[in-house]
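Obj.: predict assembly geometry.
Materials: sequence records (below).
Method: joint structure prediction, all chains together.
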Amino acid sequence: MHSARRLIALAATIVLPALLSAQTYPSKTDPRSTLKPGRFDAATAAKAMRLVSLSPTPAQFDSTRGLTFVNSDLSFGTHYVYQGNFAGFTIWDVIDPAKPVLTAVYECITSQGDPTNIGNLLFISAEGAGNRNDCGKSGVQDPKDHMAGVRIFDVTNPKAPKLIKNVQTCKGSHTFTPVPSKTDNNIVYLYVSGGQGARPETELAGCKNGTDPADVTNSMYMLDIIKVPLDHPENAKVIPGARIFTGLTPSPDCLTFCAPATGGGGRGGRAGAAPDAPAPLPTGPRNCHDVTAYPEKNLLLAACNAYGILVDISNPEKPFRIAALSDTNNFQGRHTAGFSNDGKKLIVTNEWGGGTSPMCQSNSMLEMGGNTILTLSADNKKVTQRAYFKLPAAQSAEENCVAHNGGLIPVPGRDLYVQGWYQGGVNVMDFTDADHPTEIAYFDRGSIDPPPGADIPVAAAAGAAGGRSRGTTGGSWGAYYWNGMVYSSELNRGLDIYELQPSADISANELAAAKLVTFEQYKPTSQPKLSWPAAFVVVRSYLDQLVRGSGLAANRTAAISAALDAAEQKRGGARGAALTALATQVDGDAKGAKDAARVTAMAGEIRRLAAVSK
Amino acid sequence: MKANRAVVACALFALVVGGSSPAAAQGGSMSGMSGMDMPGHIMIPKGAGYTKADVEFMQGMIAHHAQAVYMSRLAAGHGANPKVLALATMIDQSQIPEIRIMQDWLRRYNQFAPDTSSWHTMTMAGMLTDEQIKALNAAQGVEFDRKFLEYMIQHHSGALKMVEDLFATPGAGQEVDTNVFANDVVTVQTGEIGIMLKLRKDQKP
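Observations (raw structure tokens):
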């Protein structure tokens, strides 16, 4: 088979270093480890982050009962934030981030409610067994009323969203990832993820739950795809999915590309499954939890059970696997994925404990429940696992905590990832050095619930007015940088908005440069390429980084700083000439500099600035 | 509600002791307590968003998890190899909080919440027989690894069966916490079965 040969030619080799850089828990003296509990009066600790506002969850979703009303993920458009909830969604007008205005609360039982807005449409994930076509609250009585897939709303009037279509899928939708067509602006593909089994055919025609990966009629072992014509969203439909799992073994031992069963050879396919596996056991990864697309690079990184799977999406209707990486060191399951802006560093997270358990305690396994950093070779064929990174502050037993969703912060010259850790709070990981990711900023609150010792008696807790049983799930579902602010969806408390603050680890110039990158619409799982306009703050970002990392001799960084100041005082052609001269000098500085690449990048930015100063 | 208080004491004890003592999970120090058996019938209030099958699933899965925790805590003292020990620690550390989640859920709905000793008196799909428990206790080193993997694969497969049965029951598994939890069980334990198949394959000459 020609296609099989092509796939094998693209085979990736995975290199696992013998020893990943080890992270050790700090002592429990981290201020985040001992914060006073409270739902709205918890103590807080922060580094290089300021809470701008907390907008409490609207009364309709005010959760005192488990997950029924928890907030889920976010998406962003114009000046609105769309916040999913297991029982609907909220639209916030954030034109003033200090005072978000509640624009709409839409009640519609839809766990887990992962939102994406595109133009005037809002798409919402539906997975739960109790979700109904009509959004109703009293559960599914007739299986024909069950809604699992993606709901489409018209939000042309954000105050009055209208449900216009329920797209049913065989496995429902835990999350989904939008990928635009390359050739038709009117078409968007939704890659649908979810971990549950397929629905019975009696509920949805054409669905089949099976454990045989080789059975092409099986609804499992496939990434589902929905094709949406944006001008006629009512015509959105499921198209044939991508069998990106073919040939992967259930156990995380398929380190190099495993040839598809039809391709022969390799350790993959059915032969790769343990021969002694009990018959009904699922073999191999069958579905993904989340996938993140980087359309600009034609790549998709899928977090699927034991595997992180790198997928080519040049043709969004025919995605195919390039590489699959599993963690043979610690067997981390895969939850969320992300790319660095250059597409060469990958982040996969491990949602150990499912998000509802306290997996960041001082005795919790450090190698579980955090991020793994990987790098990709120039030809995208080799993936190397570099380091683990876990929230470096022990949390209490009352705080559900594990790595969860995040996105890049657009600081030029650095790879920064802001991320939610549920009740572990929000933090910023610098993974510029893939071997040594570090934390540079955070915000955290004490637990929602009091510690067990102060707990209310169990009998009184149940149903008592104002009483909360222990085990309240809360914290940041995801934290994302969008147009100058960090937005975090707090499962229980509401919508948090933060602003990053200058510190030793991040400068005012870098933060100002980040604010130059804005997006009309933003869905973090469909990563936009970050690019910066020519600007003094961009040049100075590189300069600050060279100073911070001693990447260039101090006398030179001082001289360059002075030259930039002087050039900024000039106007037009004179400024351009001064900058061009400076760029030439900086070219020369690169030779012998400790961080020559960064110096060269700075010279390029100076030249770009010169070009617009005419 | 006396039984409930005892359950709390039990659960807290198990949590505080953490990974250090198999006896805590076994409930050895609490074995004198009464009222740990499941009550004979389950009352579902009118208009409840959950079903009897949901309650039975949660109660049964507590016992099921508790046995897994007991098995996992044997690893350290039975010469398990480092990978098996890591896996066992992982199972222990993830299933203890899940037991608490299930107990919280049952208490929230005023249902009886079994404790970590309940595996002695409840039998769910895939759970080890007394003979198997004895055999695991008697094994050391490579033999322990072999038995642990075999039994835990059996045990996890039983959990998947329990979820399958739950969702096969009309109306069951719709309540959001139950739904999320049951799906998590599938995700996690399917993954762990994969790891165990791999470890078992590695072990063979």
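Conclusions so far: Chain A has eight helices and 31 strands.
To do: check interface contacts against the pulldown list.
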